[in-house]
What does this fold into?
Amino acid sequence: MNEYTLSDGLRAVQRAFDLVDPRLKGHGEQAAFLMWRLLDRMGCSRARMVSLTTAALFHDMGAYKTDADHSLSEFELLHTASHCVYGYLYARFYSPFPSFAPVILYHHMGYLYKRYIDPSFLTDSLLLNLSDRISFVFLTQQNPDFSFLGALSGIEFDPKHVAAFLEADREEGLLQALKDGSYHEKLHAFWRETTLSRSEVMNYAQMLMYSIDFRSEQTVTHSISVMSLSKLLCGLLGLDHVDTSIVTASAMLHDIGKITTPVQILEKKGPLTEEEMAIMKRHASATYEILTELGFDNIALIASSHHEKLDGSGYPRGLKGDEIPFYSRVLAVADILSALIGERSYKGPMPKGQVTAILGAMANRNQLDPIVTSVALEHYDELITFSAEDCAQTMEDYLSIKSEYLRLMQQFEAIEEAQREAPIPV
It folds into this structure.
């Protein structure tokens, strides 16, 4: 891919979300499309529309943090405050649109409770609420009934927004565009007018990467740790700057496919069942799909091959020997080392002797590259120290976000309690 556009980055994001919950395929894009058309009719500037439609695409990011077994009928009700708060913090700290994060925070707060919404984001939050609900009803009802718009006008939705939507639907056929799928090309044509640098596209990929690590406190530093270990290993192996940058980029994104792995599997205490392990292994193929969708063909194979073994016993393709890129072999050693020294829900960090014994045994069984493993063992203490220093800031950031999450949840709980004690008459 020679030129990147906002469409390229956001198409890959939606693809990743579709892999998480195929039942809501295209939900983020549909909400973004509806919001774009309403904002456009209101005379919103292009720059603001770009940021707000991007925020709309990510509006349910927090739902993946609060993952649980649920039916679609429960989706919009389950952990509503939690997923709004988490989605807000995620957008604020890790997205390219931090100034619009409050729109995500308030997107489930209805019109009658607008006094709780920051006035600077009132219109945008209520528009997202309306766009989100229309898309959700469209996707979850076999014969969608939109009579609720009139019934909830002035209660859940701003009457001016409902009127604007009904007028836009008559003139532009918004619901028909959702039905026949033409909304997709229209929205992406709008996004294609915004070009991105490769580093900006990488920022979207990195955002998805953080969504995996930050789903679990035990895994919060994993991708940073693998990236740090890979970077130092490259230097110790004598790789040049270009090669090192390819490996570290692959390391940063190596587990991006885990966005599709249920949290209950990621955080399970104890060994995975055969069925759970099969689900876990799918993350490698998902990593390849997401990275190729982003246009990162050069690192997709490297990143997705970090579980391949030289003897052919690995996954997802069962590659052997020279079929496995050398960069993937570096990544494999870094990944295993990070997993062994890291704390998980089912284990504590392993001591040096046990870690080195495991790595050595895997190299002897022709599973890990012997040269890379030898270098890792020889410089073990240096690698561990470097990784710990690199991960310290990530954990500090996580704990800060966690503290802010708890503070905001208390605010939302206070609002909910006030609503129960003195409900607004309907």
User: Anything to note?
Assistant: The chain has a mean pLDDT of 88.
